[in-house]
Automatic annotation (TrEMBL):
Entry keyword Endoplasmic reticulum: yes
Name of the featured protein: Dolichyl-diphosphooligosaccharide--protein glycosyltransferase 48 kDa subunit
The OST48 N-terminal domain, residue ranges: 17-241
Keyword Ubl conjugation: no
Length: 407
């Protein structure tokens, strides 16, 4: 009983806590504007040194925090019980992770990035762009450059409206093509390359141009999110950076569904089974988390599949203030079917809902007495019966006549 109570306490306390790891306490000041919206939405930010010996993310297999924010680019080894394996376990349990790298990248971040399918370039390399330099912040080696709006993923639910260029100064990345869940959030311009500053290029760089990923994102199949940025400076006092961080901590693009219903049109109760060709109504309520509050989802691109081995019916759900519904006629096929709603859009948590139902054929007294398309067969049958009757009459009459003549 004490063990169960301990687990309940851990789960309850983790619901509103975010662990922020740093190696220089100045990030509390330099990144205050980026972190403040998290506190405004009710989260408690727990700041700790990245090498703190008391660090841990999970206890008894349960997450101690909702999210982990790492603002310690050059840390070689996390303190306490945190390492790349512990972070992966944290994500597998539903935790969200944001990691910012920089000009120097420690082994701890490299190993963690590799676990989710992101490869950081070699130690000492930086992304260089001679044509998009930020003259105010660059030290002369053209490693501080501007990232324009067209270099961000076209998904405002992740970035928000990108109204200004951001300054990037850090390491380049590339994605593992085998990992289909990881995707680029921001990438470099065609004129950029990743190499050692102030050194001549002696071999082909790891990545060039648009293939250089500046910010990478991942949404796992359990809807946990991970964002890895190649630059800590990029996430300093920027609305776009704040939106990406909010997305990573699952404060944006979060959906939930409820009140799933299905029944015959004109009724309210779900039957034990349906009959082919009946008119059916299906609906569910979908809400979106916006600034810490659940509001009706406004999307209009959600579909319903009436599925057996393949979809027999596919209909767009009509959105009426968050209530998604559709009426349709069941196919002339019986068996075990599913109402399927699979909503998977970039930046949103997935909605996957399957409801299994049985569809039976018509009973013997439900068929039409006469089928209009069968009238030719009816006519031929009655004609044959009439012909047989007439022939029988003739044969009988003919037999009687012969018998009279003989007598």
């Amino acid at each position: 009983m004490k063990f169960l109570l301990s687990l309940l306490v851990i789960v309850a306390s983790a619901a509103d806590k975010l662990l922020v790891l740093y190696e220089n306490s100045r990030v509390k000041v330099t990144h205050r504007a980026t972190l403040a919206p998290l506190a405004d939405q009710g989260y408690e930010l727990v700041f700790k040194q990245a090498d703190d010996a008391s660090l841990e993310l999970t206890r008894y297999g349960v997450n101690l925090y909702k999210g982990l924010i790492v603002l310690a680019p050059s840390v070689d080894e996390f303190g306490g019980k945190i390492n790349s394996a512990a972070i992966v376990e944290f994500v597998d349990n539903g935790g969200n992770v944001f990691i910012a790298a920089g000009n120097t990248v420690g082994d701890a971040i490299r190993e963690t990035a590799a676990e989710i399918g992101v490869e950081l370039d070699e130690a000492g390399t930086q992304v260089i762009d001679h044509l998009n330099v930020n003259e105010k912040e660059d030290s002369g080696d053209h490693t501080a450059f501007l990232v324009e709006a067209k270099q961000f993923v076209p998904a405002e639910i992740i970035t928000g409206p990108v109204s200004e260029a951001l300054t990037f100064e850090g390491v380049g990345m590339k994605l593992d093509a085998a990992n289909k869940l990881v995707f680029p959030i921001a990438w470099a311009a065609p004129t950029a390359y990743s190499w050692y500053p102030n050194e001549p290029i002696s071999e082909y760089p790891m990545v060039l141009g648009k293939n250089i990923v500046l910010v990478a994102g991942l949404q796992a199949r359990n809807n946990a999110r991970v964002v890895i940025a190649g630059s800590l400076k990029m996430f300093q006092n920027s609305e776009t950076a704040t939106n990406i961080l909010l997305w990573a901590m699952k404060c944006r693009g979060v959906l939930r569904e409820s009140n799933v219903k299905h029944h015959l049109v004109g009724e309210t109760k779900s039957p034990e089974f349906y009959t082919i060709m009946e008119d059916v109504h299906y609906e569910l309520t979908v809400e979106e988390l916006v600034e810490g509050k659940w509001v009706p989802f406004q999307g209009t691109d959600m579909f319903l599949d009436f599925h057996r081995l393949d979809p027999f019916v596919r209909k767009r759900l009509q959105n009426k203030n968050g209530v998604m519904s559709v009426d349709f006629k069941l196919p002339d096929v019986y068996g075990v079917f599913q109402f399927r709603t699979n909503y998977k859009r970039l930046g949103y948590t997935e909605i996957v809902n399957h409801v299994q139902v049985s569809v039976r054929p018509l009973r013997h007294n439900q068929y039409e007495r006469f089928i209009s398309t069968a009238y030719p067969y009816y006519f031929s049958a009655f004609s044959m019966m009439a012909g047989v009757g007439l022939m029988s009459f003739v044969v009988l009459y003919h037999s009687d006549a012969q018998k009279k003549k003989t007598e």
